[in-house]
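During the reporting period the student researcher (J.K.) took over the structure-prediction task from the postdoctoral fellow and processed the backlog of single-chain submissions. One of the processed entries is reproduced below for the supervisory committee.
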Amino acid sequence: MLGVTDYGAFVAAFTIFLLIPGPGNLVLITSTSKGGLRAGLAATTGIVLGDQILAWLAVAGVAAVLTTYPAAFAAVQWVGAVYLAWLGLKMLLAKPGAAPILNIKPYHYLRQAFFITLLNPKSIVFYMAFFPLFIDPARQQGLVTFGFLAFTIAALAFIYGVVAALLTHFFAERMRRNPKAGFLLEKLAGLCLIGFGVRLVLTH
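J.K. obtained the following structure tokens:
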């Protein structure tokens, strides 16, 4: 189909990838629990947009450039790590009853999810390695084939984000009845964001 081999396996593999805990999942859950479904959908849109840019950068061969010039790769890693750690630290230092760290307005959730996704250069390398596994060299149609894969990624990420936001919203309603539990959850989310930032620069 359009130069893609074993499309079902591609969908299954990427769905599993979406389920792996990471900064994107964390910001989606935190955004929904703080701002409701609108915030969750905004964060989902930010993640989808960030993923699309990374996917097309991979297609353009940016991964090869980052691999050839380790300093460039490391610089992007550090920017992403500092951004994640900054968000996490703000969550840890927030006092009970303070305004949410992830702002109420939907475009703030979208922006933060977008940058958290975009500032993870390892995703470019992932796409660079992932795409060739499902492309038939004899039948591939260049940008048409890659565009079809990119559209599939966007659709799957959006569906996953909507489902995750709905589930999070359902459980968040119960968490709001227990402010102490919500406060502890925010601290845990802050620690996780800092942890993701540290892992981003320590793992190569």
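The committee noted the following: The CA atoms of residues 15 and 156 lie 7 Å apart.
J.K. will present the remaining backlog at the next meeting.
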